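Hi team,

As requested, here is the filled-out complex form for the heme C run. I kept the field names the same as last time so the parser does not choke. Let me know if anything looks off before we queue the next batch.

— J.
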Amino acid sequence: MTRTENAAGWLAAGMAALGGAIILLVLAPPPSANATPPESSQACLKCHPGVAEEWATSHHALAYENPEVRKLSQDFRNEECLACHAPRPVLGFAPGQRVLARQADRAMGVDCLSCHSRPEGGVATSSIRPDRTAACRPVHDPRLASVDTCGSCHNQHGTVDQWRASSPALRGKNCLGCHMPPVWREGGRQGRDHRFLAGHHLETLQQAVELRAGILDDDEWWVEIVNHGCAHNFPTDERSRAADVQVRWMDADGEWMAWEHLHRFRDPYRDELDLTNTQLPSGETWSHRGKRLREGRGEVRLLYRFQPFLPDEEALEIARQSING
Ligand code: HEC
Ligand code: HEC
Ligand code: HEC
Ligand code: HEC
Ligand code: HEC
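And here is what came back:
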């Protein structure tokens, strides 16, 4: 073959491929009327009412309006706090990179676009073959379900690092495995729970740890707390969370005496220099032995506080166990 013949051959092959591409373009489903995906999460709500209802009850939806956050950030006069509480889409940042605040729809906190919007266009989904005709242009994107996506905001106190260091048995579930369990959507399709249940949900707290107690001998009793339900520390993330072990005994008249403090699980604030981190790592057991009050019955309980200083009446009781029947 001569040089010119060769070039003509490539040209012909190129034309054929181009023709094929044009035919493919014609055969592909027509792009939806709304070619660009919604620019506000407001729009997602009406087309995805099931997800919207769950998300609305989540702390992600509360992130900007949350009175606790308002108080600590002086109503976001500390603008540093906007970054994760009213973020731009996290997929627009490299994994592990700090996210930045957005201007629009701040009241929606960690909204749909925060997790789903792709910088390349469309919304991210885990489905392999999403419905390409949908107005939001869903695209399969493995980044959505990756731990790094949650880590953009949830590693400032090491939750993702704790997960990486946890036992393979627990790590077998990534964040979604525990915090986005399967739910059924209209039409029998499987979806993922967008309520993100955790510390504000008693049943989830009860799945985190087990409390055991008993008598050792005439003089001594024991108590154990096992973190068997979190692939990270207990409690994790917010330094304001505290979990306390308390014990009380019955006096000779059959009256319960006051609760006594035994132990606190917590990651202290940076300025609490006299305290060390006492969170219970994943898979580990905390145990204690104590002197027994000979006559009386005893019981132990585990309380969970959103703020370390909250009184017992405002704490959640995770578990209670009798020591001697
Ligand atoms: C005009 C209606 C409409 C709007 C607005 C809309 N969607 Fe969709 N969306 C659909 C339809 C229809 C589907 C395909 C059917 C399905 O999978 O639910 C879909 C699919 C999806 C999927 C993939 C679901 C799966 O199982 O693969 C995701 C994720 C999604 N939408 C997120 C969003 C987000 C985030 C927004 C807002 C930015 C949004 N949608 C706005 C109608 C809409
Ligand atoms: C790097 C991301 C990030 C930044 C920046 C950030 N937060 Fe948060 N914030 C979070 C995450 C994630 C949680 C949820 C953790 C949890 O529930 O344990 C949270 C939770 C909180 C809570 C607890 C809310 C509750 O209901 O108890 C408060 C209060 C809070 N943040 C205040 C602030 C303040 C004040 C600032 C600025 C100084 C700030 N945050 C900056 C990510 C961030
Ligand atoms: C853009 C930042 C951001 C991303 C990404 C993010 N979160 Fe959050 N998350 C937050 C903030 C902020 C809060 C706390 C809001 C508040 O309480 O005011 C929070 C709260 C939570 C809570 C606590 C709910 C409670 O009851 O206290 C859980 C659980 C959670 N997120 C899990 C996840 C998981 C799993 C992922 C990954 C799929 C994820 N988050 C992705 C920012 C984010
Ligand atoms: C904190 C991050 C986060 C936020 C906020 C969020 N999603 Fe999702 N969403 C996910 C992840 C992760 C998945 C994929 C789960 C999987 O792998 O199946 C998902 C799955 C979905 C799906 C498909 C599965 C299902 O449950 O039907 C739809 C539709 C969807 N999201 C819509 C929305 C809409 C609408 C909003 C706002 C109301 C929203 N999401 C807010 C992280 C988020
Ligand atoms: C094996 C199940 C499991 C896995 C996997 C898991 N978690 Fe949790 N998570 C829990 C349980 C149970 C709680 C409630 C007890 C607690 O606060 O530690 C919780 C609590 C939380 C909280 C709430 C803390 C608060 O202040 O209310 C956040 C935030 C959180 N997890 C984020 C994550 C992230 C991010 C990942 C992935 C790196 C993850 N979790 C993986 C079970 C799990």
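Two things worth flagging: The pocket of heme C (ligand 5) is lined by residues 147, 150, 154, 159-160, 163, 170, 173-175, 177-179, 198-199, 204-205, 207-208, 229-232, 234-238, 241 (CB under 6 Å). Confidence is low (pLDDT under 50) at residues 1-9, 11-16, 18-34.

Thanks,
J.
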